[in-house]
Amino acid sequence: xxxxxxxxxxxxxxxxxxxxxxxxxxxxxxxxxxxxxxxxxxxxxxxxxxxxxxxxxxxxxxxxxxxxxxxxxxxxxxxxxxxxxxxxxxxxxxxxxxxxxxxxxxxxxxxxxxxxxxxxxxxxxxxxxxxxxxxxxxxxxxxxxxxxxxxxxxxxxxxxxxxxxxxxxxxxxxxxxxxxxxxxxxxxxxxxxxxxxxxxxxxxxxxxxxxxxxxxxxxxxxxxxxxxxxxxxxxxxxxxxxxxxxxxxxxxxxxxxxxxxxxxxxxxxxxxxxxxxxxxxxxxxxxxxxxxxxxxxxxxxxxxxxxxxxxxxxxxxxxxxxxxxxxxxxxxxxxxxxxxxxxxxxxxxxxxxxxxxxxxxxxxxxxxxxxxxxxxxxxxxxxxxxxxxxxxxxxxxxxxxxxxxxxxxxxxxxxxxxxxxxxxxxxxxxxxxxxxxxxxxxxxxxxxxxxxxxxxxxxxxxxxxxxxxxxxxxxxxxxxxxxxxxxxxxxxxxxxxxxxxxxxxxxxxxxxxxxxxxxxxxxxxxxxxxxxxxxxxxxxxxxxxxxxxxxxxxxxxxxxxxxxxxxxxxxxxxxxxxxxxxxxxxxxxxxxxxxxxxxxxxxxxxxxxxxxxxxxxxxxxxxxxxxxxxxxxxxxxxxxxxxxxxxxxxxxxxxxxxxxxxxxxxxxxxxxxxxxxxxxxxxxxxxxxxxxxxxxxxxxxxxxxxxxxxxxxxxxxxxxxxxxxxxxxxxxxxxxxxxxxxxxxxxxxxxxxxxxxxxxxxxxxxxxxxxxxxxxxxxxxxxxxxxxxxxxxxxxxxxxxxxxxxxxxxxxxxxxxxxxxxxxxxxxxxxxxxxxxxxxxxxxxxxxxxxxxxxxxxxxxxxxxxxxxxxxxxxxxxxxxxxxxxxxxxxxxxxxxxxxxxxxxxxxxxxxxxxxxxxxxxxxxxxxxxxxxxxxxxxxxxxxxxxxxxxxxxxxxxxxxxxxxxxxxxxxxxxxxxxxxxxxxxxxxxxxxxxxxxxxxxxxxxxxxx
Length: 1010
Prior knowledge:
This protein is of the alpha+beta class. The protein is built from 41 helices and 19 strands. The longest helix has 28 residues, at 127-154. The protein is globular, with a radius of gyration of 37 Å. The two termini are 24 Å apart.
């Protein structure tokens, strides 16, 4: 840009969105912009809406502030968000000066800013009003203290802990104008229900409220900052105007974290900032009722701004109001050590703040160079010296663990009684939100156990004298002769403060870190897009994976959690996601039981395996027994040598032998995990099918059943007649999945003995009768040889539509599906394959077996990939089983020109047929097919506009439109937009615009990857 201003990241733009729906709507506007530009601190553009006049949108980055001619009441609106997303993605060009409409608005803002502002006088309530409120609050707090002491006197075990009981006293606090206390009371029933240590939670909260009551009764005797803190805890209102009168603190404020929460439709956004020069903390709190519609004034995490903050008055000022800003937000990559970044610094700061404000629950901190560790005590953050801070019980910090990977990182969070709550992590100069979710649990502490015991029984049954207290607590207790319940609450309040302020760190060992992944990092824009595609379960994912595959990217560490979660839930995405996750993903999956099953499915990583198994020269190490090998009494080193030296020896049964040279990476085959062995075998099968066959043949008898079936399935790669001997051995295996895999592969093997056996069976059962019709005579039972070849009537086979319980139907279907199609030439007395296929589809079939025979032909054609039979079956037969899918598979086997020709023959009345077979085309669809489809859709739209009640309109074709958005060439976006503008039907107009957006979105997606 002309002033050198760096475009924002997509994360910064996303932080401005008032709600998720606005952001989703903004992304759909990507293809509607024109005359966009950016200069100085402005970004502008024209966005085509549903009307003839485009919306004029301008963003002043110095605010940020927004101007849009749309009627939306959200700020920023979807148009402003879309414009900023385009700017962040690099699609907005730099201009010398703003457009006229943008310059006019910017000039007005500048003039308004230059005009002297009239200071707003803070509203000061009348003294009588202040006194009246204080009297009302005091009366309510007196009742609260009576209620608290009654709970302790009666005993927590016997007291009414129902929601209704707490709602009654909370409502009284609302009447007494003490809303913050009412909120605290309403949260307590959930703690009783969900927390195991509820007696301690209640006792601590009761003591905290009791201390607040005592402080309010002595308000005038307290220092002014503490008075402000007491009023805040009670819920006295603080006007924003009065906060702005507080002295301004100017600094370069780094935004280290942001978190949005919701309670009873009130959305609250908290943003933590830290002064770069002063090290001072600040917390910005915003509220929005109904939806998270927050302003865009607060910069996104990872950016810093030169600004003035006005702090709310209090004993430990933290909450602040954003005042005058000097310049625009800029990214930062480091956090200075000013203010302390060690664990000791965090504990000292918390203790100091707690000493000033005894009602403080937590205090922010930055911990530099710490590693998340899981041990018997739960999750902890450990520094270089082994000093550790615990995370709250129940926390699942997998995003933090993924980013760290066992390496030191900088973590921002809050330290409180429950532990250190991580909010964000800074690694490699990037701030990532952690979005950690965990139940709020306050663990029991032995120091409070005796006090809790007394509170459970009640001071009416057990006295407070004789309780063992730390000397520091006993000395500080007030010397009064109050009733036991009051003395117990005083003791608990002081003891709780003593325990929290005096908390000491623990120790923990650090884990072995993940190995570095040498592959290139997936760039920021495609990484953000992949995250969205996974969240939305987008149909664009296959195209994204296919386009990204040649680059062999690795995921940003922070995305590994999302990738592993998606891989665990969706097997169709698993291979691609695990390949992207790589070493960090594998390291992470091994530490989470929910992902542990994925560890063996990661693609092979030879570099990581070599690094893990390499040892200095001349040393001998004990190795695990090779996978698939029998246990030997000899040392592993000897058996390993023998297996290498005899690798080329011929097998006694005459099966193929291994080559003299052991394949590269053979140690993976011997010692790798099941997933690594399968990947190694797959790669070897692709590069040297004979060597792979020899390796599997040698280990066949020692492989476990499930692994054997998976490895045999990989023989499909480069299948040849050399594999027949191994596949015949598979037919004799004890496991059904191994036998089925072997039979399926033998069907695909031309000229096999298996095919000859099936041909003989079929010739014995099927012939052409004297009348020219097909005669079928299937035996009721088959012999053992047929059972060995996979002919079975077992109930574990799926029940087909024509299956009436007659075993002969299923037997005939299995034999026809497994018989080579050329065998029908001998049965029908025909010549070439085309002649045989035509004759088969013309002959009269017995009604009882007709459907069975056709389905058998379809299965055989698909197994053999026979385009000649597929053409005849597609044109003249309809499968009865999975008709749409089978017909699509047959269509896929046709020659490309035949497929295109068939589609071009379809008209607007056959869109259902078009949708059924279009997936059989290559992606993206050919231009001729795409043009024909658009003409048909345009014709359907014009028909709907002329006869709106004649059919279901666009809704009948929404599935076809969705498929078009996934498979049409992206270059047709402009043509689709023109089609939308020429369409009179509103539903079709919107549908075409959505289709144009999908194409534009895909084009942007592909450009990001290239």
